[in-house]
Amino acid sequence: MTQVIARIREFIREVFLEFKRVTWPSRQELMNSTTVVIVVTVVLAFFLGAVDIGLTKVVERILR
Question: CA-to-CA distance for 25 and 11, rounded, in angstroms?
Fold first, then answer.
């Protein structure tokens, strides 16, 4: 049991050490990245929606 607790402590210590090495983005970089992700997601959603509607109409015409 003692060995398990020691391993957990070591893991947590290493996690904190890794967090110190991380290069965190600035607030502006984070906002820009978030904006890009949202815009790309919306554009892709509209594109896939249009493709879905188009293919649905094609399949409906074929099945009639």
Answer: 25
Q: Which helix (H) or strand (E) element contains residue 2?
A: helix 2-21
Q: Whose structure tokens read 């509209």?
A: 46
Q: Judge residue 63's burial from the number of C-beta atoms within 10 Å of its C-beta, 0-12 exposed, 13-18 middle, 19 or more buried.
A: exposed
DSSP string, 15-54: HHHHHHH--PPPHHHHHHHHHHHHHHHHHHHHHHHHHHHH
Encode pLDDT of 17-30 as tens digits. Answer: 999 999 999 999 99
pLDDT of residue 7: 95
